[in-house]
Specification:
Order of helices and strands: HEHEEHEEHEEEE
Strand content: 25-35%
Structural class: alpha+beta
Number of domains: 1
Number of strands: 9
CATH topology: Cyclic Phosphodiesterase, Chain: A
CATH architecture: Alpha-Beta Complex
Radius of gyration: 17 Å
CATH class: Alpha Beta
Distance between the termini: 38 Å
Shape: globular
Oligomer: single chain
Number of helices: 4
Length: 175
């Protein structure tokens, strides 16, 4: 479907291109404190439309075309619990908002992303950058947080992955 036609179709039905994709996330068990700290760091008046991220997760792959959680099972068989380490706060920027995020390290994140890329997907970003989103804010209002190490060296063992379809229906996979 040509891009303009697809955009018109999504617009008529109140959808965005992103709303038609599924994703796989690594859930951070024991990270319930992160949204609470985020709310102390970022004033509500700084928020953009999507606001605070309330579920602490690392997106492993966004843009999957499937809405069926069974489709990713064949990629899950050799994934065992793995470690990740949080880093400094940074941001992604665009015209409408900044994404305030925490950098994340862990080699298994890249391996799983690579496995999932073999599924039909639309790649919206040029490279995979593991991160934990804290909040969506108005441009440049939270630059004072960039480079701070509030969450640095916080370690987590990833014990479950979550498939989320484009209707936000979630399926949990225990590792």
């Amino acid at each position: 479907m040509p891009t303009q036609l697809a955009d018109a179709f999504f617009s008529i039905f109140g959808l965005t291109r992103a709303s038609k994709f599924s994703c796989v996330m690594a859930w951070l068990n024991g990270a319930d404190y992160i949204p609470n700290i985020t709310k102390e760091l970022i004033p509500i008046e700084s928020l953009a439309e999507d606001g605070y991220e309330n579920e602490s997760h690392i997106t492993l792959m966004f843009g999957l075309h499937t809405e069926n959680p069974i489709d990713i099972l064949k990629y899950m068989h050799d994934i065992k619990p793995f470690e990740v380490t949080l880093g400094k706060i940074s941001k992604f920027s665009n015209k409408e908002y900044d994404v305030i995020k925490v950098d994340v390290s862990g080699s298994e994140l890249y391996r799983i992303n690579s496995l999932l890329k073999s599924m039909p997907h639309t790649n919206l970003y040029s490279e995979y950058i593991p991160h934990l989103t804290l909040a969506y804010v108005k441009p440049n209002l939270c630059d004072y947080l960039i480079g701070t190490d509030i969450f640095s060296n916080h370690n987590f063992t990833i014990k479950q992955l979550v498939f989320s379809d484009y209707n936000n229906n979630k399926t949990i996979y225990k590792l």
